Amino acid sequence: MLLNHAFGLFTHPDAEWAEIRKEHAPPRRLYVAYVLLLGAIAPICAYISTAHIGWTVSGERVIKLTEVSAIQLSVLTYLAMLVGVFALGFAINWMARTYGAHEETVPSNGIALAAYSCTPLFLAGFALLYPVPWFNALVFLAAACYGAWLMYDGLPIVMGIPKDQAVMYAGALLTVALVILVSTRVGSVILWNYGLGPVFVEG
Question: What is the pTM for the complete model shown?
Fold first, then answer.
């Protein structure tokens, strides 16, 4: 089962990447059985915490989002995550030969590498149930660092490239990931101007 890889990537990542390369799971199956499930953790937890738990500013009143606003933002976040994983997987495949992937080119490898590298970020979504901004920022920063390391570690194994090419390849992919992140921020601002911004209430 694809979800078994989530645990393996934290305990024995090299062996898990080798299994993932052999698996060649079709992109559609990867999305349905892995990305759609794990990607839903953060939006669901964010909805619960922002609409029903709330957070405080300077230890004073509790601030929440309206349920409609929380649902809208959670759905948009979920869609952005799905698009982001696909875009990163596409970039991995697109740049493969540039960095020495002369072995078999399997389209699912790039999507698999992107999806499984994002596993720490998916699981970090549980931290949103404790809506304290500095705590959430630290958890997601740690998850992003481990996800970047997973990608660097998995590139030579999954894509069949020399290890000395993995640093440059991973650097290029992290640049792509940052572009995707900035694009989602810009998209958020545009959508907020069309009335899909957060609506706050006092708890």
Answer: 0.91
